């Protein structure tokens, strides 16, 4: 049994006309003799409409009830789409989270998929040619409805593909695929034919919106081939898959950036054991994501501690640390909102040195000052003044010849 | 464990303000220490909105998908109401058809309840003080969502009350209870304190809208005490319950009428065996509900056959019978749209003669001509010219002193 999984977002199913277009996408693999699992989101705007009802009803809506409430969005889009498809003579049915079943933990609003029962899905695929599955939702052990959090339909699709061992999981989106960098930032940006899971994860964590990060983790874990492609054309998009030799021969696959950052410095912190924990534990407790951290060399028993947080969390971060001023024992707290992160990403870096230094040189040639640096096996990130973001992205894109599809020299 | 079941319709839950009023009704038995099962309909207008979406999507919407679609209406009202209640500190949760579970057959759109699992509901009632259950919906064996047909929430409430052996099933509505007759037709109409199941069934089958007929059948079968009462006051309404002696001492409990009737006559039908089947089988096949039937005494081997059908089915009835004109062998088909049925109903009739003749005399005194008569153990129905409906209802109401609460003389 050849199985294709296809996922369409809220914009793609927002009205009858759009659903008719989606139907054409579904009929292609169906007519080629594949069984198709179509994963749908709620019609655009519906989830927000329901959430605002919840806010009207309660200052602090019960999360389990909120999940039961918003899950109706996908229930509606799936029932309607199945009607449409059935009218074309396709043997199909809608499948809700509890019917599949997509079993999750009971963390309402941000549940994690625990298990998808292959047996039941396979049985349904024997009876029906197309299953129209509600994305974003599942059920916990007691059969209560859960949701996977925003963008969870991507994860639903990948998890279903993993469960039934689908040939491919196609994620339809409003862009043609994954690009070497943001085309709005750099007109030379090129669509990638292929990208490794780890690279995609780094791109996603830097704010590339094309795939939800958890869906990529899932795809990597279960080795699901994901095809990110456009709802508006039949052109192939980008395959997200396991690292292979051809990828390793590419030094850098993409340039990502994140303007949503702020830099905070604690001046003249006492350099003594435990001080890092004193600073960062209370931030972690408030779920503030501290990213780059630099501790200057100590001088007279004092050091400066610099780190980045999402810009939206700056005020809270400052408030927390000012309360702890005497406990931590620093002299001054400064912050800088005008910073951004620019990263070069590529699995090819693992086996090649000199990538970081080539990046630094290219930025220096354009007089872009680097405020902080952090590196991982497959990523080099520079914090820079945010007015240089576009210049830095273009410079690095050019430096690694990404417009051409660069290969190891 | 004392359990109260309460059912509220779509108008009662149509917005936040209305739901707050419903909450007060729920908090009353809750504060008295009862466990409460609240059965809700979809917010007014929502079911029709969803059905019109279905019609837009498909000329002939798949019934199973339509059920999954419209069941979201109750899912939304229940989730919101549970949020509201939870905010008041009440231990509560919403319960959908598949979660209760309310097991039905798979006649989508008009499913019948097969079984409600008492064990699971009782376990939930141990954990929660109030269960907010979605009315109108259930699930079939394969866990697909079903709906019970219009007004099915009444049946859900009664069935749940039967399953958990509730002390009472309160059906909240926009009228204060069940009346001796339609108060819009007769200002002397009096609210009944009590009515027997069989009487309520006859009233409902004559178009009294206060309770869905299947819910009354269910209540009778499982001996559930139903309390029909007003959403807008705290006054007691009408108890629908088993026949008892006090009821039998009442000759007539109510006067019902049905203006939605038409009379059809086949003139000069050959009076031979099988002719009734020839006429009525094809009508039954098309689910046309033939009610009163009269066959005149035969003369020269010919008879006239007169019967009533719902007015909406007249055209189809005529079409069917005209096609069969030569097969049946009648001379002429006439019809009369200007007729209505008026009935006197009461379990007390069983043990008392003279009720019918008293009714005929009262109508005759007012010069109301009776076109057809049919009687059952607890009902006498007269077909009359529909312009006399109001007069007939008032005359009969007066004749049996219903404004006073009549007793056997």
UniProtKB/TrEMBL annotation, chains A, B:
Q: Which SUPFAM superfamilies match?
A: ACT-like, Carbamate kinase-like
The record's annotation in Pfam families points to: AA_kinase, ACT, ACT_9
Q: Which UniProt keywords apply?
A: Amino-acid biosynthesis, ATP-binding, Kinase, Lysine biosynthesis, Nucleotide-binding, Transferase
The answer to whether UniProt assigns keyword Nucleotidyltransferase to this entry is: no
Q: What InterPro entries does the record tag this protein with?
A: AceGlu_kinase-like_sf, ACT-like_dom_sf, ACT_Aspartokinase, ACT_dom, AKii-LysC-BS, Asp/Glu/Uridylate_kinase, Asp_kin_monofn, Asp_kinase
Write down the EC number. 2.7.2.4
Pathway(s) it belongs to: Amino-acid biosynthesis; L-methionine biosynthesis via de novo pathway; L-homoserine from L-aspartate: step 1/3; Amino-acid biosynthesis; L-lysine biosynthesis via DAP pathway; (S)-tetrahydrodipicolinate from L-aspartate: step 1/4; Amino-acid biosynthesis; L-threonine biosynthesis; L-threonine from L-aspartate: step 1/5
Q: Which reaction does it catalyse?
A: L-aspartate + ATP = 4-phospho-L-aspartate + ADP
Please state every residue range assigned to the domain named ACT. 264-347
The UniProt similarity line reads:
Belongs to the aspartokinase family.
Protein's recorded name: Aspartokinase
Q: Which organism is it from?
A: Pseudodesulfovibrio portus
């Amino acid at each position: 049994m050849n199985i294709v999984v296809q996922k369409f977002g809220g914009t793609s199913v927002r009205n009858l006309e759009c659903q008719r277009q989606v139907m054409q996408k579904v009929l292609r693999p169906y007519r080629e003799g594949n069984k198709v699992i179509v994963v749908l989101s709620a019609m655009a705007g519906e989830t927000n409409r329901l959430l605002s009802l919840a806010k009207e009803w309660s200052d602090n809506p019960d999360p389990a009830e909120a999940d039961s409430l918003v899950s109706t969005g996908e229930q509606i889009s799936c029932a309607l789409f199945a009607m449409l498809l059935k009218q074309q003579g396709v043997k199909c049915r809608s499948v809700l989270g509890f019917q599949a079943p997509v079993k999750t933990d009971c963390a309402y609003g941000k549940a994690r998929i625990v298990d998808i029962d292959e047996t039941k899905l396979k049985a349904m695929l024997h009876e029906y040619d197309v299953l129209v599955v509600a994305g974003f939702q599942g059920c916990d052990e007691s059969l209560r409805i859960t949701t996977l959090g925003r963008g969870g339909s991507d994860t639903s699709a990948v998890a279903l593909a993993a469960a039934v061992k689908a040939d491919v999981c196609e994620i339809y989106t409003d862009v043609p695929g994954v690009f070497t960098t943001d085309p709005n930032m750099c007109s030379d940006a090129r669509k990638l034919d292929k990208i490794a899971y780890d690279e995609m994860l780094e791109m996603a964590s830097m704010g590339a919106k094309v795939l939800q990060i958890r869906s990529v983790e899932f795809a990597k874990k279960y080795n699901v081939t994901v095809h990110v492609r456009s709802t508006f054309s039949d052109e192939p998009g980008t395959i997200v898959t396991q690292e292979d030799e051809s990828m390793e021969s590419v030094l850098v696959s993409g340039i990502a950036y994140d303007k949503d950052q702020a830099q905070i410095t604690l001046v003249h912190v006492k350099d003594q054991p435990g001080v890092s924990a004193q600073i960062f534990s209370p931030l972690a407790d408030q779920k503030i994501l501290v990213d780059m951290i630099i501790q200057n060399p100590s001088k007279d028993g004092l050091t400066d501690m610099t780190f980045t947080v999402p810009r939206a969390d700056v005020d809270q971060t400052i408030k927390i640390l000012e309360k702890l001023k005497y406990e931590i024992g620093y002299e001054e707290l400064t912050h800088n909102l005008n910073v951004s992160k620019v990263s070069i990403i590529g699995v090819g870096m693992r086996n090649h040195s000199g990538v970081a230094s080539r990046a630094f040189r290219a930025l220096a040639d354009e007089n872009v000052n680097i405020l902080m640096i952090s590196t991982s096996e497959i990523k080099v990130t520079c914090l820079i003044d945010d007015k240089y973001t576009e210049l830095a992205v273009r410079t690095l894109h050019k430096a690694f010849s990404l417009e051409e599809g660069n290969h190891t020299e």
